[in-house]
Write a structure and sequence with these properties.
By secondary structure, the protein is an all-alpha fold. It has helices spanning about 25-55, 60-65, 70-75, 80-105, 110-125, 130-140, 155-180, 190-205, 210-215, 220-240.
């Protein structure tokens, strides 16, 4: 409604105090940035823990490496214990997925053995410093393997221990199943097969600097990985498979 001078007689509408609504894609973009940042932190933490061990690594050093303030780093991971557990669990889970997936795949035991070897080589070769950290953890009897109380807490140790046991159990069952079916050598103890496979698959990546000095190629380079797969297949077949009479 207008007055004689042409101005509206209605009172001005009060402006909303609510902030403008963000585009629907904003929360998703924020979550993606946080996820990528967390992955970057885990990757650099893996390197740091592999180099210095749990006791020698500090959150301050890690914050400097990833370009964050220490307080901001604690926003992503509330403690060094939680971060260390996350790093180890991610490594062990990736190994578990590789082993279980290959063992449950289609085909003969020989084909599945090749698939397991390739999967483990790919998994460890795609995670620089992961094998070194795992071996260091085992040698120093760190939180993942220690039965003594530690800073990481019983829940973390229990989860790590359970995942590691799953990996070993799945590997051992695969070896025994192959022996029962007459595909794997029954004269070699199944547990000894697994012990040998751990060394064959983990050590070249755990001692990467020595391997590179000796071969002239990083063990994490694509060309080395392909050569490694071929070599390990041959070694593992010779160790595990029943020798067929010609």
């Amino acid at each position: 409604m207008s007055t004689a001078n042409g101005k509206s007689s209605h009172p001005p509408t009060a402006r909303s105090s609510k902030p403008p609504r963000l585009p629907s894609s904003a929360p998703a973009a924020t979550r993606k940035r946080k996820r990528l940042r967390k992955e970057e932190i885990i990757l650099e933490a893996t390197r740091l823990f592999a180099e210095r061990g749990y006791e020698g690594a500090s959150m301050g050093d890690l914050a400097e490496r990833v370009g964050l303030r220490k307080a901001s780093l604690f926003h992503h991971f509330p403690s060094k214990d939680v971060l260390y557990a996350t790093v180890l669990l991610q490594l062990v889970e990736s190994v578990r997925v590789a082993i279980v997936g290959a063992a449950a795949s289609e085909g003969s035991f020989e084909a599945r053995l090749d698939a397991l070897t390739d999967a483990l080589t790919t998994t460890l070769g795609s995670q620089p410093h992961a094998a070194r950290l795992f071996v260091r953890e085992a040698m120093e009897t760190g939180p993942a393997f220690s039965r003594a109380p530690g800073q990481t807490g019983p829940a973390m140790r229990e989860r790590l221990g359970r995942t590691i046991n799953d990996v070993l159990s799945a590997s051992l069952e695969f070896a025994r199943a192959g022996q029962r079916e007459g595909a794997f050598n029954p004269d070699v103890d199944a547990t000894q097969i697994i012990v040998s496979l751990i060394g064959i698959h983990f050590m070249p990546f755990a001692i990467g600097e020595i391997v590179e000095r000796f071969t002239g190629t990083s063990p994490f380079h694509a060309s080395f990985l392909e050569q490694r797969k071929t070599a390990v297949r041959s070694q593992v077949r010779d160790l595990v498979l029943v020798k067929r009479k010609t």
